[in-house]
């Protein structure tokens, strides 16, 4: 499934993806497999069910990362 990262708390290691089906999926850093994500990134992921929720994301792959804002003529990462 495809979706867009709507919130990601890197200090806490979790966030949320809005899937193409309109549902919101929980993502934990342990399911990123080395990928770096931030709000606004477009991703592909697999849906899985655990004991707490039917809406979880794993095997997350970044499809498109938006450009960073430019300050003082330089792109910031």
UniProtKB/TrEMBL annotation:
Gene3D superfamilies: Nucleic acid-binding proteins. It comes from Enterocloster bolteae 90A9. One of its GO terms (molecular function) is nucleic acid binding. This is CSD domain-containing protein. Residues 1-61 form the CSD domain. SUPFAM superfamilies: Nucleic acid-binding proteins (SSF50249). It comes from the Bacteria.
